[in-house]
Amino acid sequence: MLWLLLLACFTSHAANQLPTNQKSSITFDPSQLICSAPGPPGAPGPPGYPGSAGPIGRMGLPGKDGVDGKDGQKGYKGEEGDRGNQGRSGKSGTKGIRGAIGKLGPRGPRGLKGAQGSAGIHGPKGTDGNNGAPGLPGICKCGINTARSAFSVAITYSFPKERMPIKFDKVLLNEGGHYNVSSGKFICGIPGIYYFSYDITLAKKHLAIGLVHNGQYRIKTFDANTGNYDVASGSTIMYLKRKDEVWLQIFYSEQNGLFYDAHWADSLFTGFMIYVDQDYLNEIEEEQIF
After folding, report:
1. Dist. CA 270–CA 237, nearest whole Å
2. Closest C-alpha to 204, from 180, 230, 178, 179
3. What is the pLDDT of residues 120-170, one digit of tens each?
4. What does 230-245 look like in DSSP terms, one character per residue?
5. C-alpha span between 179 and 186 (Å, rounded)
6. Which of 249, 253, 255 is CA-nearest to residue 186?
7. pLDDT digits (tens, 9 = 90+) for 220-239
8. In CA terms, which of 1, 17, 42, 55 is 20 to 30 Å from 9?
């Protein structure tokens, strides 16, 4: 079948190659047709030279994941690493529930003797005892009970300076010598309760005067000038310690209307001790005993 097909193809090809005017005069020998049949394939020729590389094709789609491999063998234990830095302290946890009371432990050894306790409550008063023997004569306190301090002074000039002790320069009484004429101050020599008063004549100006104790005003009085003579007065009681100072002074500028008139009126500053401080008496008594 193959050689018949080849023969038909060759005949048709040869007829097409001849001129038109010559197609009818050509004849073929059957032996020529048989010799023109293809022979068996020849031996392959030597390989040709490699061609140039073609362009890079598109990247293919990713393949499916492969099957997981088997677990490898257990490795050897590594060397111990360096110790890390200490971490931050954690927050305190919530307080747990108090546990049940445990069983009573064995009795411990006897402790040391404790200190003596405080005294108990006083018991009821007992019956009176017998009279004792007469004691030794006591110490005389005559000088203590007769301790005195009193003064009364007047002034012989008008309009003293403001904000400084007024110097009452006329002494009417100075029992104990505790009023200082040069400074105008009463200096306490016996601690106790004292009474002070003043009666000041004013004229031509207003008067703002106060009683001062160790630099602090204890009382203040103000009297306005009415065109005539007037009297400003004040009094108080206070406790004094030794070396405390008391005086009078004008406490407002240009309000120093204190007026002196030898024929009409005096201005007086008076003070005296009411009673002595009992602690002071006790100290003197102890000094006499020793």
Report:
1. 12
2. 230
3. 888 888 888 888 777 655 445 554 456 789 999 999 999 999 999 999 999
4. EEEEEEEEEEE-TT-E
5. 4
6. 249
7. 999 888 878 889 999 999 99
8. 42
d(CA 207, CA 199): 12
Q: Can you point out the beta strands (E) in the chain?
A: 150-154, 170-175, 179-180, 185-187, 192-213, 216-223, 230-240, 245-250, 256-258, 268-276
Spatial contact of 132 and 158, defined as CB atoms under 8 Å apart: no
Other beta carbons within 10 angstroms of residue 249's beta carbon come to 19
Distance CA 238, CA 191 (A): 11
pLDDT tens profile 16-56: 444 444 444 555 555 555 555 677 888 888 888 888 888 88
3-state secondary structure of 47: coil
Q: Which residues contact 98 (CB under 8 A, 6 or more apart)?
A: none
pLDDT tens per residue across span 164-200: 999 999 999 999 999 999 999 999 999 999 999 999 9
Query: How would residue 15 be classed by pLDDT, with cut points 50, 70 and 90?
Result: very low
Q: Which amino acid is at 31?
A: S
| Identity of the residue numbered 272 | F
The whole-angstrom separation of Cα 207 and Cα 270 is: 19
Q: Find tokens 């007037």 and name the residue.
A: 230
Total-model pTM:
0.50
- Bridging pattern class, strands 216-223 and 256-258: unpaired
Do 175 and 151 meet the contact criterion of CB atoms below 8 Å apart? yes
